[in-house]
Amino acid sequence: MASNKSLLILPGDGIGPEAMTEVRRVVDWMQDNRAVSFEVDEDLVGGASIDAHGIPITDEVVDKAQNVDAVLLGAVGGPKWDNLDFSIKPERGLLRLRKDLELYANLRPAICFDALVDASSLKPELVSGLDIMIVRELTGGVYFGEPRGIEDLGNGVRKGVNTQVYTTPEIHRVARVAFELAQKRDGRVCSSEKANVMESGVLWREEVTKIHETEFPDVELSHMYADNAAMQLVRAPKQFDVIVTDNLFGDILSDCAAMLTGSLGMLPSASLGDVDEHGRRKALYEPVHGSAPDIAGENIANPIATILSYAMALRYSFDMPGEADLVEKAVQNVLAGGMRTADIMAEGMAKVSTTVMGDAILRELDKLNG
Ligand code: IPM
Ligand code: MG
What is the CB-side half-sphere exposure of residue 21 using CA atoms within 13 A? Predict the structure, then answer.
């Protein structure tokens, strides 16, 4: 079967490879059962790339990533590479991909599955039915701002510097993504910054407001300081629909939102760039969780976030919403049936391995597919 759908898989480190093994089974299932084939390539990123090539990602892999429809990444990092120089740490591989592909809009849905309401650290009534979308700016702000570095001032005094910086186009493009998403959801965007103490926050607020007034008057816009947003997320999370925020606040708020759902092991994310001249939108999909080196290789990790990241790729890169629904439904049904990996284990449920969770999802896909 000739394929016009290309996918680059970068399993990375820690639990990344085991989770990705289960994803590949789902990709194969699509091929066998839905008459869609993917041209799949696999390569190294993070510590795995450092071990093989001395750097966290090679130019060749970045080049491959530039030329596929979607990249699916597992996770990067681990104690083995903790003491390396900052510039060649495993995380730099991921940051380079985001930057070089200009993946400026990071979509992090926080959805509470009915079956997992009790796994949240919040009361069930606060999280049941929760469905929020955090849109995090991903290629600007303090993560990439210059000047940066550690300076020796002499006399044993050192100075560490990072720069928070945003230009209007950077704010406009991510704001548009948030407003467009809200139009397909509940029609509400909450923009978050620290305009009370940061000029970049004042600019952020003014520019998001401009885009709202001129292009999206049908969407409801509110503003919230980031510290308050963190507090509101644990006080009354269901008040939010779409939250749009900068790179650093988005990093923090999305972990916070993720935990409301019971487990980081459940949450996928999509990082999107602009649409190119061939109508293709650069995109990278990855779970929100990290590489969890402490449990790597034990076949106990939860593969669901990575599988759901593939479902997001089906939805946003391959225009296959039916297949995306199918994968999401299969996951829901397996959870409803009582199977749990260790991270979401609860009393009365059946604790299963990574592989058995994968088996169950495939069986459920067979059932749903008739
Ligand atoms: C994330 C992670 C990354 C980040 C790290 C691994 C560089 O925390 O994707 O949220 O800070 O962006
Ligand atoms: Mg993070």
Answer: 16
